[in-house]
Design the sequence.
C-alpha cells in the first residue's frame, strides 16, 4: 500500500514523467506479448513432436551458449550489445531518475528537468550501467552453470532412476538457495547504487552498500513482496491471455490491464528504491551523529552541553551539525528518530 501511495504521489507531482514512463512500459508490454506468442508456438511445436522435455531443453540451451564456435564473434557481439543497451538506458533513466530524486528531495519543478538530469548524470549513469550489466552477466552465468548438476540429477530422477533421489533433492535445495540469494544480492546492490549517483560524486556503490547493509533483511522482505505481486499477476495474465482465442476485444482489454498494472508497478518500485535509500542514508547519518553526541555527553568533555537537559542539548547539536545542511528531512522522520532515542534514555525500572 505504501508503494502504491508513493507511485500516486510521484504521478501527481510530475504527471509528464509518469506519462513518459507509461509509454516505455507500453513498449515493454508490446514486446512481451510478441515474445509470449513466439514462446507458445515453440512449446506447441515441441509438444506435437513429443519433445516436451523442459530440463533437457534447458541443458541444451546452456551447452549451446557455452560452445566455443565463433567465440571471438560472440564476445564482440556481446560487448556491442552491452554498449548499445547501456547508452539507451543511461539516456532514458538518467533524466527520469533525476526527476524522481527531485520529487523525493522535495525540490521544485522546473522546465527541462529531464534534460538537466541527462546533462548532469549521463556519463556517470552510463559507466555504472556498463559495469552493472557486465558484472550481472558474469554472476548470472556462474549461477546458471552452478545449477547444471541439480538439473541433470533431477532429469535422471525423472527417468525412473530413484537411486539418486536424495542427492537430487539436496542439490535442488542448494541450487534454489543459491539462486534466490544470488539474484537477491545482485538486484539489491545494483539497484540501490542508482540513487547514490545523485547523492555523491564518488564511491556510489560503497555508499549504496553501506546504506543497505544495516537494513538488508527489510529490503529482502520488500523485494519478495514486489516479486510475489508481479509473479501472481503474470501467472493470471498468461492464463487469461492464452484462453482468449483471438477475440480482439478481450485481447485488447487484457493488454490494457497489463499495461496499467505494470506502469503502476514499475513506478512504485522505482519510487520505493529512492525513498528507501534516502531513509536509510539519513537514519545512518543521524545514528552516527547521535553516537558522537552521546560520547561527548557521557564524557563531559564538551563545555557547551547542559548536563541537565539531554533532549534540548541534542536538538541544538542536531540543528547545528545536521539539519542546517539537510533541509529536506521530513518532520515525521525527525519525530521518529527523536522518539526512538528519547525512549532509549528512559531509566529502567
Sequence:
Amino acid at each position: 500500500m505504501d508503494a502504491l501511495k508513493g507511485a500516486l504521489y510521484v504521478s501527481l507531482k510530475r504527471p509528464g514523467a509518469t506519462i513518459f514512463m507509461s509509454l516505455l512500459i507500453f513498449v515493454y508490454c508490446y514486446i512481451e506479448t510478441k515474445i509470449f506468442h513466439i514462446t507458445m508456438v515453440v512449446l506447441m511445436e515441441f509438444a506435437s513432436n513429443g519433445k516436451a522435455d523442459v530440463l533437457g531443453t534447458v541443458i541444451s540451451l546452456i551447452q549451446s551458449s557455452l560452445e566455443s564456435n565463433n567465440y571471438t564473434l560472440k564476445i564482440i557481439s556481446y560487448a556491442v550489445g552491452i554498449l548499445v543497451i547501456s547508452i539507451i538506458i543511461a539516456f532514458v533513466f538518467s533524466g527520469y531518475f533525476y526527476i524522481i530524486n527531485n520529487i523525493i528531495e522535495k525540490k521544485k519543478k522546473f522546465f527541462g528537468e529531464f534534460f538537466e538530469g541527462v546533462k548532469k548524470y549521463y556519463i556517470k549513469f552510463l559507466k555504472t550501467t556498463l559495469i552493472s550489466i557486465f558484472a550481472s552477466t558474469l554472476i548470472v552465468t556462474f549461477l546458471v552453470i552452478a545449477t547444471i548438476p541439480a538439473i541433470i540429477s533431477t532429469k535422471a530422477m525423472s527417468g525412473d532412476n530413484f537411486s539418486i533421489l536424495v542427492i537430487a533433492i539436496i542439490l535442488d535445495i542448494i541450487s534454489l538457495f543459491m539462486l534466490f540469494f544470488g539474484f537477491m544480492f545482485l538486484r539489491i546492490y545494483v539497484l540501490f547504487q542508482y540513487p547514490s549517483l545523485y547523492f555523491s560524486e564518488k564511491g556510489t556503490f560503497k555508499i549504496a552498500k553501506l546504506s543497505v547493509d544495516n537494513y538488508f533483511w527489510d529490503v529482502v522482505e520488500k523485494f519478495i513482496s514486489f516479486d510475489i505481486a508481479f509473479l501472481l499477476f503474470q501467472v493470471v495474465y498468461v492464463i487469461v491471455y492464452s484462453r482468449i482465442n483471438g477475440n480482439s476485444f478481450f485481447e485488447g482489454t487484457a493488454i490494457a490491464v497489463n499495461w496499467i498494472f505494470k506502469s503502476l508497478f514499475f513506478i512504485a518500485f522505482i519510487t520505493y528504491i529512492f525513498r528507501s535509500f534516502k531513509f536509510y542514508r539519513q537514519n545512518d547519518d543521524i545514528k552516527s551523529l547521535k553516537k558522537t553526541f552521546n560520547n561527548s555527553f557521557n564524557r563531559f568533555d564538551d563545555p557547551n552541553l547542559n548536563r541537565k537537559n539531554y533532549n534540548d542539548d541534542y536538538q541544538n547539536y542536531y540543528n547545528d551539525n545536521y539539519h542546517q545542511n539537510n533541509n529536506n528531512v521530513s518532520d515525521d522522520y525527525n519525530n521518529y528518530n527523536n522518539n526512538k532515542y528519547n525512549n532509549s534514555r528512559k531509566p529502567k525500572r
User: Anything to note?
Assistant: DSSP finds twelve helices and no strands in the chain. Residues 323-337, 344-349 have pLDDT under 50 and may be disordered.
